[in-house]
């Protein structure tokens, strides 16, 4: 455990809360700009999250502000720390990388706040940064040790061969990955993701879309409309027999080993990918459990992994409800329109279930907010957003 923060540091950090609330995004933007001047550090990041929408900048600014506000009771931030540690393991961020972030953050504070960034403030934030960094490094070391000791486990980058490419829908493709070394595949937790390092150096997270089986991973990827990034490379350039490098499965969004109550798997668009892994895990490990698979997409041309969902439902008895917002005549029988809170209240045990959500940011923002209004406790809502989690969803 790191040495406790001094009372002086706690007081100074708390006093910076108003400045962080006003200038936090400018500070994190300046921090990233400085970090990315170093090509080796730049290569550690997923730059799909550094787009013009600024989600990553605002997500980090919100996390720093939350840290300052809760500096006297950091137990509030335990879920955030876990999420960051899992991401760091996925991107293979190591202890030796932390000094680069410290220098960039403190310089950014000084650049943005100017004369207001006194020596006392910089000293306090330096101590606060390293306190949190030590917590993260300890957790990341524990995660890596656990992964390395597990059957089929590893740390760092492992080579996987693309054994199959399967067209799932007009824009969605599955990739079956087998370890090049012929070894056992680590058993992941249903809902977790793989981090891939692609041939052009890009790093991308993709949910594992199958339950653990000891032999393969399956990722299911939608080619984005703008044609940029990893999805285009995977769809258009990666062929059967090619090698992809992966770090071990990571992520704090997963189905637990023991189901304490009914489960609702609620997803939209390509957000169904971790939910299919959960559905298959329920069929394999929890047959007979009360479970609902509720999914919304445009129509059958955009609906991926339907046979896998149906197969899992046949084994487990899981209820499946599919909504098409723009159905075609040949798509019946389906429920036309979008998933609504009224439908969920009438057709699922909403008030007494664990609810797992994944989908586009507007989908998650809407349902997380509406579920809260419906009285669902935060501890029974579990969600994954493809990209940085920001305060609009997590608050």
What does this molecule look like?
By secondary structure, this protein is α/β, with parallel strands linked by helices. It folds into three domains: 7-149, Globins (Globin-like, Orthogonal Bundle); 158-246, Elongation Factor Tu (Ef-tu), domain 3; 263-394, Rossmann fold (3-Layer(aba) Sandwich), CATH 3.40.50.80. Helix content is 42%, strand content 18%. It has 13 helices and twelve strands. A six-stranded antiparallel beta sheet has the order 4-3-6-1-2-5, covered by helices on one side. Strands 10-9-8-7-11-12 form a six-stranded parallel beta sheet, sandwiched between helices. A hairpin with a 5-residue loop joins strand 3 (193-197) and strand 4. The protein starts with 6 loop residues before the first helix and ends with a helix. Mean pLDDT is 91; it is low at 390-395.
Using the alpha-carbon principal axes, give the shape.
globular
Give the CATH architecture of the largest domain: Orthogonal Bundle
Helix content: 40-55%
Query: Which band does the percent of strand residues land in?
Result: 15-25%
Largest sheet properties = 6 strands, antiparallel
CATH superfamily of the largest domain: Globins
Please report the first level of CATH classification, the CATH class of the largest domain.
Mainly Alpha
Structural class: alpha/beta
* End-to-end separation: 28 Å
Q: What radius of gyration results from the CA coordinates?
A: 22 Å
* Sheet with the most strands: spatial strand order: 4-3-6-1-2-5
Whole-number total of structural domains: 3
Number of distinct beta strands: 12
The CATH topology of the largest domain, please?
Globin-like
Query: pLDDT below 50 for ≥5 consecutive residues: which ranges?
Result: 390-395
């Amino acid at each position: 455990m790191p040495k406790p923060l001094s009372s002086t540091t706690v007081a100074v950090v708390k006093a910076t809360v108003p400045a962080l609330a006003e200038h936090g995004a400018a500070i994190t933007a300046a921090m990233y700009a400085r970090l990315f001047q170093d090509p080796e550090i730049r290569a550690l990041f997923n730059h799909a999250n550094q787009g013009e929408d600024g989600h990553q900048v605002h997500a980090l600014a919100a996390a720093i502000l939350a840290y300052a506000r809760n500096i006297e009771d950091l137990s509030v931030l335990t879920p955030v720390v876990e999420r960051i540690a899992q991401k760091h393991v996925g991107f293979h961020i190591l202890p030796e990388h932390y000094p680069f972030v410290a220098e960039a953050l403190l310089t950014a504070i000084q650049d943005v706040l100017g004369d207001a960034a006194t020596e006392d403030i910089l000293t306090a934030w330096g101590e606060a940064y390293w306190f949190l960094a030590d917590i993260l490094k300890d957790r990341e070391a524990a995660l890596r040790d656990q992964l390395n000791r597990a059957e089929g486990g590893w740390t760092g980058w492992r080579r996987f061969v693309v054994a199959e490419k399967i067209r799932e829908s007009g824009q969605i493709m599955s990739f079956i990955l087998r370890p090049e070394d012929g070894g056992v595949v680590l058993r992941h937790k249903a809902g977790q993701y793989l981090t891939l390092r692609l041939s052009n150096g890009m790093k991308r997270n993709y949910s594992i879309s199958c339950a653990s089986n000891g032999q393969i991973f399956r990722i299911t990827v939608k080619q984005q409309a703008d044609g940029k990034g990893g999805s285009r490379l995977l769809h258009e350039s990666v062929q059967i027999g090619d090698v992809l490098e992966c770090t071990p499965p990571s992520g704090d969004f997963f189905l637990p080993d023991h189901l304490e109550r009914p489960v609702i798997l609620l997803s939209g668009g390509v957000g169904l990918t971790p939910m299919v892994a959960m559905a298959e895990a329920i069929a394999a490990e929890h047959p007979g459990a009360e479970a609902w698979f509720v999914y919304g997409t445009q129509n059958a041309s955009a609906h991926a992994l339907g046979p896998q969902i149906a197969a899992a439902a046949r084994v487990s008895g899981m209820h499946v409800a599919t909504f098409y917002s723009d159905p075609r005549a040949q798509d019946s029988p389906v429920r036309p329109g979008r998933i609504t809170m009224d439908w969920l209240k009438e057709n699922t045990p909403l008030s007494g279930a664990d609810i797992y959500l994944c989908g586009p940011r507007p989908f998650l923002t809407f349902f997380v907010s509406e579920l809260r209004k419906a009285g669902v406790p935060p501890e029974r809502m579990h969600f994954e957003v493809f990209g940085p989690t920001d305060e609009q969803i997590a608050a």
